[in-house]
Amino acid sequence: MKSGLLWSSTMSATAMKKAVSARAHKERSQPAHRTRLGLLEKHKDYVQRAKDFHNKEDRIRKLREKAAARNPDEFYYKMISSQTGKGGVHRQKNGGKQYTEEELLLMKTQDIGYLMNKAQIEQRKVEKLRASHLPMSGTMNKHVFFVDDMEEAVDVEKKLAGIRPPEPLQVPRVRKKLQRELQERSERAEKLRDLAATMTLKKQLSGKGRKRKLRPEELTTPSDQPVYKWRTERKR
Question: Which DSSP symbol is given to 138?
Fold first, then answer.
């Protein structure tokens, strides 16, 4: 019986110890006279900093071993198209790959097509939002009254005079959101079209043919963008 009582008391004490939450030990904060030094580093901060330091050490050690074991007579094609600049920075010679004029023209054309496609998508969404908008104010319903004589017409007119007109509908939150989206998409479509027009002008200026920029007094319609005129050339 004594052993059974001892076992039950031990189990109850263990269960009670698990049921009671352990005290949370908090690390002290930075003392008031050392606040100028910033936050006080905790143990978890030290562990993270030490782990990062050792990872960098291992990376540097592996790179040094790889450089020491490298064959000095080894050749690879990157030696031709790259060089070591100031401060030991490794970079490509002449900015990397050199594109021909035809390749640059093709890339500009693709960029302009992409911008125009995006502008058309935004414009379609704008038109769809405009079509989904409801009228901003209440609509007046029409009703036709048929009377037999003038007296009945006067009575109907007096009754209608006492009826208050319907108040305008309140703009709900959803409609405000649609209006904001409509404005943003309209501005985005306009910016895309302007950017496409600017890139088209640059593409045309980079082409062949003599050209000059028109002065403001030579323009028939004023424009914020520069306008160029190409000289007529005889085609053979």
Answer: P
Strand partners, 194: none
Measured distance CA(37)–CA(195) in Å, rounded: 51
Residue among 141, 145, 170, 178 at smallest CA distance from 159:
145
Structure tokens at 128: 């769809």
Assigned token pair, 28: 């002290």
Contact criterion met (CB below 8 Å) for 122 and 189: yes
> H-helix or E-strand containing 118?
helix 101-132
Cα-Cα end-to-end distance for the chain: 122
Which two structure tokens, joined as six digits, stand for 34? 């050392």
E strand intervals along 39-173: 82-84, 90-92
The predicted structure's pLDDT at residue 137: 45
**pLDDT for the residue numbered 164:** 54
For residue 30, give every residue at least 6 positions away whose Cβ sits within 8 Å of its Cβ, in sequence order, or none. 37, 38, 39, 40
Contacts (Cβ under 8 Å, ≥6 apart) of 83: 90, 91, 93
Sequence-ordered list of residues with C-beta below 8 angstroms from that of 84, at least 6 positions apart, any chain: 90, 91
List the domain boundaries for the chain.
Answer: 102-132+172-203
Predicted confidence at residue 106, as pLDDT, reads 82
Which residues, given as ranges, of the chain have pLDDT below 70? 1-13, 16, 19, 94-97, 133-142, 161-171, 236
Give the pLDDT score at 141. 60
Compute how many other C-beta atoms are within 10 angstroms of the C-beta atom of residue 162.
6
